[in-house]
Amino acid sequence: MSPHASYLSQQAAKAALRRQALECRAKVTPDIQSQFAAHLAKEGLRLARARLGVKCVSLYHPIRQEADCLHLLHALHEAGFNTALPLVEADKLPLRFLQWRPGEALIRSKMGLNEPDPAQNEVKPDVFFIPLAAFDRKGNRLGYGRGYFDASLAQARAERKVLAVGLAYKCQEIPAVPISDHDQRLDFVITESETLDFG
Prior knowledge:
By secondary structure, the chain is of the alpha/beta class. The protein has helices at residues 3-25, 30-50, 70-78, 148-159; strands at residues 56-58, 82-87, 96-99, 107-108, 114-115, 127-131, 134-135, 141-142, 163-167, 188-190, 195-197. The longest helix is centred in the first third of the chain and has 23 residues, at 3-25.
């Protein structure tokens, strides 16, 4: 198989796995969603506190059925951490991370994302809490196919020591994520039932 054909085959496999995992995530009940949000607020704060030297933590404003990390964002802010949200600029390029505190205004992007005002201070997170489509027990993450977080983690890891934590429901686990050279592994995954450490 030619390199191009192999790449296309892997992309097709990723698309199928992504679709299956997101269909499963869409069926998670509101009760489980609420319980997981409360659990994340405690477990995510524990991981951030356990890492020495953490000053800034990035999260995301959840869309569709992504794991809700807003309770965690509030807990981190109240514990004295600087908090940030990502700003999308272009596919395959690193995200910009802008300081954002609970209660501050958000702007609806053309992609339907809630993002900070681009005029906010840009920051360099020490810990990244990241959404995903699927994950496996080797720390591999299947994202949404646009490469934002892979590019962001690659850039951050080239500069400093950072922690990447995937947030997902148990049903998003798959046996093996097809990986490419540019894919970035996670250090942890938090689900509603366990915290997986890949360190």
